Amino acid sequence: MSARELGLALPPRPSRLAPTLTAVVVGVIVLWATAGLPIDWSDVGAIPGELLHYGTLMFADPNWEKLPRALFETWRSISMAWIGAILCVLVSIPLGMLAARGVGPVWLRLPLRGLFAVIRALPEVIIALLLLTVTGLTPFTGALALGIAGIGTQGKWVYETIESVQEGASEAVRAAGGGTAEVTRWALWPAAAPALMSFALYRFEINIRTSAVLGLVGAGGIGSMLANYTNFRQWDTVGMLLIVVVVATMTIDAISGAIRRRITQGARMRGARRSSKGRQDVVGIR
Questions:
Q1: Residue 259: in which H helix or E strand, if any?
Q2: What is the largest CA-CA distance in the chain?
Q3: DSSP alpha helices (H): ranges in 136-234?
Q4: Residues 220 and 139 sit within 8 Å (Cβ to Cβ)
Q5: Cα 202 from Cα 184, distance rounded (Å)
Q6: CA triplet 30, 210, 131: central angle to 5 degrees?
Q7: What pTM was computed for the model?
Q8: How much of the chain is in helix, strand and coil states, percent to nearest 5?
């Protein structure tokens, strides 16, 4: 029997008017903004041919004579990214924990979250340009810019991770007479540490990519070398540099991903192997 035959009132059909109007308004804004751009749409069809042309210039016969210097500059970029990641983690973890609900007071928590939001609004390139007037054109400028820029995102990850920790351990520490410091040390930190370490490694991966961009504004590293040879239109050397950047980035991502999986899943996987081996031994004895 249907709901009408049973005398039950059917719920009203949800209105689709508001989502439809929102989609229409957003679409009109996007079309209006696109139409206002100074774009010669007749050149769009030539893009595939241009990409093929410059791709051939860069990768048909790369210039490997500059490979030793490219490797040195790549190592400088990786060092810059690593120092920036360490600086970011050392600052963002304590500040992010103070910004978490239940750890820091309201008068401290809200300003810290506002500070994180302001830092996230500033791209790394802008921060590097501001620091150039103080520290000059050095790799330290890039490392400092990466460290400062990462505090905003990393701090947000920290306090969101702390707030997502289950309350059982915290309530047990409070029931034993522990205060905020004891709860943070013995309940929140052990539960959140694997995720925070994983986020720290992920921040390093992001810094690897961003360090090449910072080199374009004079912060040193492989980005500066890439910008110089691009300005002089030495496309065979540019192709070699792009190959080095891609290989180095993929290698770092693979190593960092393996370490992150070991941090977050390694203990459980090792325990599963031990238990599986134990079951096999028991079956063998039987």
A1: helix 235-285
A2: 85
A3: 139-163, 167-175, 180-183, 189-214, 222-231
A4: yes
A5: 24
A6: 100
A7: 0.73
A8: 80, 0, 20
62: which 2 tokens?
A: 């790369």
Dihedral of alpha carbons 256, 259, 260, 261, sign: positive
Residue 148 neighbours by CB under 8 Å, 6+ apart: 87, 88, 119, 127
Q: How many residues does the chain have?
A: 286
Which residue do the tokens 């229409």 mark?
24
Gyration radius of the chain's alpha carbons: 27
Q: Residue 122: name the closest of 85, 148, 83, 155 by CA.
A: 148
CA 56 to chain centre: 32
pLDDT in tens, the chain (286 residues): 565 666 666 667 777 888 889 999 999 999 888 877 777 777 777 888 888 988 888 888 888 988 999 999 889 888 888 999 999 999 998 899 888 887 888 899 899 999 999 999 988 888 888 888 887 777 888 889 899 999 999 999 998 888 888 676 677 777 777 777 777 777 777 778 888 888 888 888 888 888 888 877 777 788 888 888 888 888 989 999 999 989 988 898 888 888 888 877 765 545 455 555 555 554 455 5
Six-digit token pair at 109? 């928590």
Whole-angstrom Cα distance, residue 230 to residue 221? Answer: 15
Residue 13 carries which DSSP code? P
Find out whether 61 and 67 touch, Cβ atoms under 8 Å: no
